[in-house]
Amino acid sequence: QQASQLATALREVGAAPIEVPVIDVVPPTDLGAALQDAVARLGDYDWVVVTSPNGATRLLEAVRDARAFGTARVAAIGPGTAAALAAGNVQADLVPDRFVAEALLDALPSGPGRLLLARAEVARDVLPDGLRARGWIVDVVDAYRTVPAIIDDEQRAAVASADIVTFT
After folding, report:
1. Are residues 78 and 100 in contact, defined by beta-carbon separation less than 8 angstroms?
2. What is the pTM of this model?
3. CA–CA distance from 90 to each of 35, 73, 95, 125, 142 (Å)?
4. Residue 111 confidence class, pLDDT cut points 50, 70, 90
Protein backbone atom coordinates (compact mmCIF):
# COMPACT_ATOMS: atom_id res chain seq x y z
CA GLN A 1 0.00 0.00 0.00
CA GLN A 2 2.71 2.51 0.92
CA ALA A 3 5.10 1.48 -1.84
CA SER A 4 2.85 2.76 -4.62
CA GLN A 5 4.85 5.96 -5.23
CA LEU A 6 8.01 3.96 -5.82
CA ALA A 7 6.16 1.47 -8.02
CA THR A 8 4.73 4.33 -10.08
CA ALA A 9 8.16 5.89 -10.53
CA LEU A 10 9.64 2.54 -11.55
CA ARG A 11 6.88 1.99 -14.13
CA GLU A 12 7.61 5.43 -15.59
CA VAL A 13 11.18 4.33 -16.35
CA GLY A 14 10.12 1.02 -17.87
CA ALA A 15 10.28 -1.40 -14.95
CA ALA A 16 7.55 -3.90 -14.13
CA PRO A 17 7.30 -3.76 -10.33
CA ILE A 18 5.70 -6.52 -8.32
CA GLU A 19 4.41 -5.22 -4.99
CA VAL A 20 4.53 -7.68 -2.11
CA PRO A 21 3.84 -6.31 1.38
CA VAL A 22 6.11 -7.73 4.08
CA ILE A 23 4.46 -5.94 7.01
CA ASP A 24 0.93 -5.16 8.09
CA VAL A 25 0.03 -2.09 10.15
CA VAL A 26 -2.31 -3.04 12.99
CA PRO A 27 -3.59 -1.42 16.18
CA PRO A 28 -1.19 -1.34 19.13
CA THR A 29 -1.32 -4.04 21.78
CA ASP A 30 -3.62 -1.89 23.95
CA LEU A 31 -5.97 -1.50 20.93
CA GLY A 32 -5.44 2.26 21.00
CA ALA A 33 -6.56 2.91 24.60
CA ALA A 34 -3.55 5.10 25.44
CA LEU A 35 -3.97 7.05 22.20
CA GLN A 36 -7.67 7.63 22.94
CA ASP A 37 -6.79 8.84 26.43
CA ALA A 38 -4.17 11.24 25.07
CA VAL A 39 -6.53 12.53 22.39
CA ALA A 40 -9.10 13.32 25.09
CA ARG A 41 -6.45 15.67 26.59
CA LEU A 42 -4.98 16.93 23.29
CA GLY A 43 -5.51 20.58 24.14
CA ASP A 44 -3.32 20.18 27.25
CA TYR A 45 -0.21 19.68 25.12
CA ASP A 46 2.16 22.35 23.83
CA TRP A 47 3.28 20.10 20.98
CA VAL A 48 1.90 17.01 19.29
CA VAL A 49 4.66 15.10 17.51
CA VAL A 50 3.98 12.44 14.89
CA THR A 51 6.79 10.33 13.49
CA SER A 52 5.22 8.56 10.49
CA PRO A 53 2.29 8.63 8.08
CA ASN A 54 0.85 5.60 9.88
CA GLY A 55 1.03 7.44 13.20
CA ALA A 56 -0.60 10.50 11.64
CA THR A 57 -3.42 8.42 10.22
CA ARG A 58 -4.06 6.62 13.52
CA LEU A 59 -3.95 9.90 15.46
CA LEU A 60 -6.42 11.56 13.11
CA GLU A 61 -8.75 8.54 13.27
CA ALA A 62 -8.91 9.08 17.05
CA VAL A 63 -9.51 12.85 16.83
CA ARG A 64 -13.19 13.62 16.31
CA ASP A 65 -12.74 17.37 15.80
CA ALA A 66 -9.60 19.32 14.90
CA ARG A 67 -10.51 21.87 17.56
CA ALA A 68 -9.33 19.24 20.06
CA PHE A 69 -5.76 20.33 19.27
CA GLY A 70 -6.49 23.69 20.93
CA THR A 71 -3.29 25.72 20.89
CA ALA A 72 -1.01 22.69 20.55
CA ARG A 73 1.49 22.98 17.74
CA VAL A 74 2.10 19.96 15.51
CA ALA A 75 5.42 18.52 14.36
CA ALA A 76 5.93 15.81 11.74
CA ILE A 77 8.99 13.84 10.72
CA GLY A 78 9.10 14.21 6.95
CA PRO A 79 6.83 15.41 4.19
CA GLY A 80 4.94 12.10 4.00
CA THR A 81 3.90 12.46 7.62
CA ALA A 82 3.00 16.10 7.06
CA ALA A 83 0.93 15.10 4.01
CA ALA A 84 -0.94 12.47 6.04
CA LEU A 85 -1.76 15.15 8.61
CA ALA A 86 -2.81 17.59 5.88
CA ALA A 87 -5.17 14.94 4.47
CA GLY A 88 -6.99 15.27 7.79
CA ASN A 89 -6.90 19.09 7.61
CA VAL A 90 -4.11 19.42 10.18
CA GLN A 91 -1.16 21.53 9.06
CA ALA A 92 2.23 20.63 10.55
CA ASP A 93 3.89 23.64 12.19
CA LEU A 94 7.30 22.00 12.02
CA VAL A 95 8.82 19.54 9.53
CA PRO A 96 12.61 19.16 9.82
CA ASP A 97 14.83 19.09 6.74
CA ARG A 98 16.01 15.55 7.47
CA PHE A 99 13.44 12.83 8.12
CA VAL A 100 14.91 11.29 11.28
CA ALA A 101 14.23 11.67 14.99
CA GLU A 102 17.52 13.46 15.57
CA ALA A 103 16.58 16.23 13.12
CA LEU A 104 13.24 16.75 14.81
CA LEU A 105 14.95 16.83 18.18
CA ASP A 106 17.29 19.56 16.90
CA ALA A 107 14.40 21.54 15.36
CA LEU A 108 12.05 21.57 18.35
CA PRO A 109 12.57 24.28 20.95
CA SER A 110 13.62 23.38 24.48
CA GLY A 111 11.01 22.93 27.20
CA PRO A 112 9.52 23.34 29.66
CA GLY A 113 6.19 22.16 28.42
CA ARG A 114 4.11 19.09 27.71
CA LEU A 115 4.50 17.08 24.52
CA LEU A 116 2.59 14.14 23.05
CA LEU A 117 4.61 11.73 20.93
CA ALA A 118 2.43 9.38 18.85
CA ARG A 119 4.51 6.66 17.25
CA ALA A 120 4.94 2.97 16.47
CA GLU A 121 4.76 0.52 19.34
CA VAL A 122 8.39 -0.46 18.79
CA ALA A 123 10.61 2.55 18.13
CA ARG A 124 13.94 4.01 19.14
CA ASP A 125 13.95 6.13 22.30
CA VAL A 126 16.21 8.84 20.85
CA LEU A 127 13.38 11.34 20.53
CA PRO A 128 11.60 10.92 23.90
CA ASP A 129 14.89 10.68 25.80
CA GLY A 130 16.30 13.73 24.02
CA LEU A 131 13.14 15.76 24.59
CA ARG A 132 13.08 14.91 28.29
CA ALA A 133 16.72 15.98 28.54
CA ARG A 134 15.64 19.34 27.04
CA GLY A 135 13.01 19.94 29.70
CA TRP A 136 9.87 18.49 28.11
CA ILE A 137 7.29 16.34 29.87
CA VAL A 138 6.79 13.66 27.21
CA ASP A 139 3.80 11.35 26.92
CA VAL A 140 4.65 8.55 24.51
CA VAL A 141 1.67 6.69 23.08
CA ASP A 142 1.62 3.73 20.75
CA ALA A 143 -0.47 4.65 17.72
CA TYR A 144 0.11 1.39 15.83
CA ARG A 145 2.41 -1.58 15.47
CA THR A 146 3.78 -3.49 12.54
CA VAL A 147 3.60 -7.25 12.22
CA PRO A 148 4.97 -9.56 9.54
CA ALA A 149 2.62 -10.01 6.60
CA ILE A 150 1.70 -13.47 5.45
CA ILE A 151 3.28 -14.06 2.05
CA ASP A 152 1.70 -16.76 -0.09
CA ASP A 153 3.51 -19.08 -2.51
CA GLU A 154 2.57 -16.98 -5.56
CA GLN A 155 4.03 -13.82 -3.99
CA ARG A 156 7.15 -15.73 -2.90
CA ALA A 157 7.64 -17.02 -6.47
CA ALA A 158 7.19 -13.50 -7.87
CA VAL A 159 9.88 -12.14 -5.55
CA ALA A 160 12.20 -15.05 -6.38
CA SER A 161 11.89 -14.28 -10.10
CA ALA A 162 12.59 -10.54 -9.71
CA ASP A 163 15.79 -9.00 -11.07
CA ILE A 164 15.95 -6.49 -8.21
CA VAL A 165 14.27 -6.43 -4.80
CA THR A 166 13.81 -3.18 -2.92
CA PHE A 167 12.12 -2.26 0.35
CA THR A 168 10.35 0.98 1.24
Report:
1. no
2. 0.85
3. 17, 10, 13, 25, 20
4. confident
